Amino acid sequence: MTSLMKKYYVTTPIYYVNSDPHIGTAYTTILADTAARYHKMLGEESFFLTGTDEHGDKIAQSAAKRGLAPKEFVDQISEKFRALWPQLLVRPDRFIRTTDEQHKLVVQQVLQRLHEKGDTYFGEYEGLYCTGCERFRTEKELVDGKCPDHGTEPERIKESNYFFRMSRYQQWWLDYINANPEVIRPERYRNEVLGFLREPLEDLCISRPKSRLTWGIELPFDKNYVTYVWFDALLNYLSGIDYGDGDTWGAWWAECEHLIAKDILKPHGVYWPIMLHAADFPIFQHLTVHGYWNFRDAKISKSSGKPVGTEPLLRVFGVDAVRYFLLREMVFGLDASFSVDAMVKRINSDLANDLGNLFSRVAKLIGDFFGGKIPPSCAPDTELLNVSRKLMSDAPDWVAEHKWNVLLEEVMQFVRATNRYFESSAPWSLVKSDMVAAGNVLYNCAEALRIAAVSLHPIMPGKMTELLSRMGEPIEKFEWTSAMKWGLARSGAAMQKGDALFPRIDEAALPALLPEFYTAQTDSKSPAPKSEVPLLDIEDFRKLELRSAVVTAAEKISGSDKLLKLQVDIGGAQRQIVAGVAQYYSPEQMIGKHIVVVANLKPAKLRGEISEGMLLAVKWDNELQVINLGEAVPPGSSIS
Ligand code: ME8
Fold first, then answer.
1. Whose C-alpha lies nearest to ligand 1, atom 14?
2. Where in the chain is the domain with CATH 1.10.730.10?
């Protein structure tokens, strides 16, 4: 039976399995997951497809490098992608692999149809092939003879192949975009596609001779050839909803939105719609394109050698905070810069301070003065009520347009307005004179927290489920307009403060926890910076005695704005260290830090104070961070 609910079908690119997942691939997938969750909450039925792209030269070469048969290799890497998604709270409805038998049948069926329609021909071709892109690049697209995306020289290939008559449909597609501009968005990418279409389109080479590549889907009309990897890959969007098996696929297809980054705009913005049209399929609703995540000004990618894995970030920040940061920080359509510093600032200010603290403070007062039960409400606060109503009516548009940074900023404005209301109403002192009024303030704050949690749930499903369950809210399923109505928090329900929802992150501890994000330069493409420091013999290095220590007291040294005098405990023994950290840390901030000290330095006098060692810190640009080992390491431990 077909459901009458409005449908939403969202896809991510299917990722190449030539190496592991990273922040960039995680981003698009979290985005699709979030969009699917919001659409469900908005009363639609959603289907979210992701998967892996497993054929082609690039994969065959990666498998060969590791001495594995292609299938063995793709099974291993595809599994890594599949296993990562639950860790990122990503729940696809289907994980498609281009090596799935059902997908292969769809590809062959569509190829056969185009062949019968006369949209393919056999001919000779000579061109410049970039294996990184898995496509021929035109001379014009190259920069200094190299692929602009991969920095490699494409290979000149001359061979007989099958071609798809793309040029036949160039004018049709141009007219379609002009009549339906929202089909490619944001506008800058639509303009880019229109730019491609202003030049004459070359026909697309859609085969590879088996004499050169066997790792692909065989052409149904010539067994000496396999199909070109993009032709195979793009069709996943149809096989993923079971095209060819019954008729449920059509209703999903009519509501399809593809999410991609700008690197694969041409195959999605030119080849794909023309393939669809030639094979008599309707066109997707939207091709929605985002920018790149960069790290130190270069695109994060599998081949860049940059720190790119999500695992260390999940370990240190937790999955909900990672999802929040990625969606909050990128302005959709533009590039964004990834840095641990930006992440900490965002988490500490928005999540730990604004949201987490509000929850703790409200729950604590309800615990102290109302027996841990949400008090009765008398009247909503007008400002909070209005802001929540505006959020309820505006958010669906921001979701539809992928304005995630705007949506999150508005939710945080609402949280900050609630903090101001809490501060100015001072319920901790109001309880002394008017319990009913104090109870009403706390009810309003609890209700605002509930509404914020509902609106943040698709982005931080783990922590928002926890927040809501700590206030006795059933969380199986929300429906936006009813769940966002003011006044649903239940008076009398238990409110449990519990541990901090988002513990504050100690910035100073991060260089030790995430060293890969702090090392000076890990770009494998650029030569290692020349060291000015003479090379050390290992024996010289062994002479250093590095020990963990805890700072027990700290004070400024008069007359110096750079130095602090520290008393440290190195496992029972006390030492005094004079350290040049005063411009970065106050004495209070240093106390309690578990630091690394060079313990066998000859004592020296600095500004009249004896210094019996040195502490280790990381310095870059205008920043300095003392290496903080964390409380688990006992003072006096030797560091090797
Ligand atoms: O292109 N910033 O696969 P792929 C943002 N198999 N997003 C990024 C990113 C970054 N630094 N790096 C990667 C392919 N992505 C083909 C697709 S689809 C029919 C076939 C994300 O593994 C982004 O979504 O190279 C980008 O479009 C995609 O990964 C490319 O993944």
1. 15
2. 339-483
Cα(52) to centroid(ligand 1), Å: 11
pLDDT digits (tens, 9 = 90+) for 61-94: 889 989 999 999 999 989 988 999 999 999 999 9
Residues with CB under 6 A from ligand 1: 13-16, 24-25, 27-28, 53, 233-234, 236, 260-261, 263-264, 292-293, 299-301
What is the number of helices (H) and of strands (E) in the chain? 24, 26
Q: Which atom of ligand 1 is nearest to the CA of 13?
A: 18
Mean pLDDT over 189-212 rounds to 93
Which protein residue has the closest C-alpha to ligand 1 atom 13?
A: 24
For ligand 1, atom 12, the nearest C-alpha belongs to 24
pLDDT confidence of 306, banded at 50, 70, 90? Answer: low
Longest Cα–Cα distance in the chain? 92
Nearest protein CA to atom 15 of ligand 1, as residue: 24
For residues 195-223, give the mean pLDDT: 93
Q: How far is the CA of 302 from the centre of ligand 1 (A)?
A: 10
What's the pLDDT score for residue 215? 93
Q: How far is CA 605 from the centre of its chain?
A: 50
526 pLDDT more than 90: no
Q: Ligand 1 centroid to 261 CA: how many Å?
A: 6
What 3-state DSSP class applies to 55? coil
CATH topology for 538-639? OB fold (Dihydrolipoamide Acetyltransferase, E2P) (2.40.50)
Ligand 1 pocket mutation pick from 11, 20, 25, 189 by most atoms within 8 angstroms of CB:
25
C-alpha distance from residue 535 to each of 131, 532, 541, 549, 639 (Å): 40, 9, 10, 28, 21
Angstrom distance (rounded) from CA 51 to CA 49: 7
Side-chain half-sphere exposure of 54, counting CA atoms within 13 A: 25
Distance 284 CA to ligand 1 centre (A): 19
Predicted confidence (pLDDT) per residue in 215-258, tens digit: 999 999 999 999 988 999 999 999 999 998 888 999 999 999 99
User: What is the architecture, at CATH level 2, of domain 339-483?
Assistant: Orthogonal Bundle (1.10)
Residue to mutate (ligand 1; options 234, 263, 275, 289; most atoms within 8 A of CB): 263
Q: Which atom of ligand 1 is nearest to the CA of 28?
A: 24
Give start-end residues of each CATH 2.40.50.140 domain in the chain.
538-639
Q: Residues 598-640: pLDDT tens digits?
A: 988 888 888 888 889 899 988 766 678 889 888 888 888 888 7
Coil, strand, or helix at residue 546?
Answer: strand
Angle between helix 435-456 and 461-470 (nearest 10): 160
Of 105, 10, 5, 89, nearest to 49 by C-alpha is 10
